[in-house]
Amino acid sequence: MAYKNDTIRKSKQSGMANKKVIVIGGGAAGLMAAGTAAESGADVILLEKMATPARKIKITGKGRCNLSNSADLEDFIAHFGPSGRFLRQAFNNFFSGELIDFFASQGLKLTIERGGRIFPETADAPAVARLLINWVKKNGVDMQTGAMVTRLLRKNDRLTGVVCNGSKIHGERVILATGGKSYPRTGSTGDGYLLAQSIGHTLVPVRPALVPLKTNKDAVYGLTGLNLKNIKARLYVDNSRKQQMFGELSFTNYGLDGPIILTLSSIAVDALREDKHVVVSLDLKPALDDERLEARLLRDLAKRAREPMASLLRGLLPKQLIPVCLFHAGINHDQLASQLPAIARKKLRQWLKDFRFEIIGYGSYDQAIITAGGIKTTEINPQTMESRIAAGLYVVGELLDIHADTGGYNLQAAFSTGRVAGRAAAVS
């Protein structure tokens, strides 16, 4: 179904008076909220503290912009864990299909890639940012940059405006869309949390999410830059397995990164903050159970009996992993395959299925894709995103205590909550 501007048409036909809507923040949620409110008949001003809006959009998805995911609603919500229930009504109003139609109406075609990830056909994140900015301007939004909001104005439990750059701006509705604390160089420095708290909202402790994990440097010595595909990673907290993921992983000079590590990081970060013991175990041969892996090893050892183990292992592992494997299995570099003791073969098999790393920390907000924690969702009306504490205030996007794993889910939540808030602020 093509994207249509039904709301603004209905509001104009009914003679609805314009509302002054103030949007704070020019990211994905803020731009969607501002453009939607303007289309819905409101007089809108968008206040962005940076010199240009949409800075985080320009770098999302490694510059390719993973906008959403093709997963069905129930699967999509499940990626947010317990917080997903809050988003059901927003997704019912504006979901991945509507997002695809919206961008198509603006001349940008999207494509679905592996894992259901939805990208622009051009794989150009800056083009997405330009499109949203142009759409907002075309709709008549007064976009102000270098505009730092330091205070929300309230009278009798209702928002009446903001203080921006030392001056008061009065408005009937305020949409708070300043983002979390990830990638602070883009302007996400947590300002919105303080603004919401200043009028009584509760802040669930914020922390980096979708973030690399740190190990002792000795544990990853010589592995920097190595990428592994089709492996299984298991996360243990205090010796109890909490989660496992299958996919891609990469080694850094300080630890572990890559899609499956980013997904596991949510539980790992929370556990580390509680001083719990965290371990990541890698199964380098997940397609082979112990019995079949043993058979594979025996076959290779017999076939290449006269080769040293360092040579034989090239058929099993990337070159960078071979010295690490030999060390952990207690095998000499020049040990002949025909002379490998059974106990050494057992250690080798166990290591291939259980290569362990103690996790001692996690990356900073500079490395985190998103922020976990935020404004408590029980204080927000999920149908409109309006505050239950202060009438006329709407909270959207990453400011809310919602977060999912990688795959386009978080950006869709920003667009959906911004869309719902923009409509509600304009017509309520």
Could you characterize the architecture of this molecule?
- By secondary structure, the chain is an alpha+beta fold.
- The chain folds into two domains: about 5-210 and about 370-425, FAD/NAD(P)-binding domain, CATH 3.50.50.60; about 210-365, no CATH class.
- About 35% of the residues lie in helices and about 25% in strands.
- The protein has 14 helices and 19 strands.
- It has helices spanning about 5-15, 30-40, 55-60, 75-80, 85-95, 95-105, 125-140, 190-200, 260-275, 290-305, 310, 320-330, 340-355, 410-425, and strands spanning about 20-25, 45-50, 70, 110, 115-120, 140-145, 150-155, 160-165, 165-170, 175, 205-210, 215, 225-235, 240-250, 255, 280-285, 355-360, 370-375, 395.
- The strands form five sheets. Strands 12-15-14-13-16-17 form a six-stranded antiparallel beta barrel. It has a five-stranded parallel β-sheet with strand order 6-2-1-10-19, with helices on one face. Strands 3-5-4 form a three-stranded antiparallel β-sheet.
- Helix 2 (about 30-40) runs parallel beside helix 14 (about 410-425) and helix 12 (about 320-330) crosses helix 13 (about 340-355).
- The longest helix has 19 residues, at about 410-425.
- Residues about 1-15 have low confidence and may be disordered.
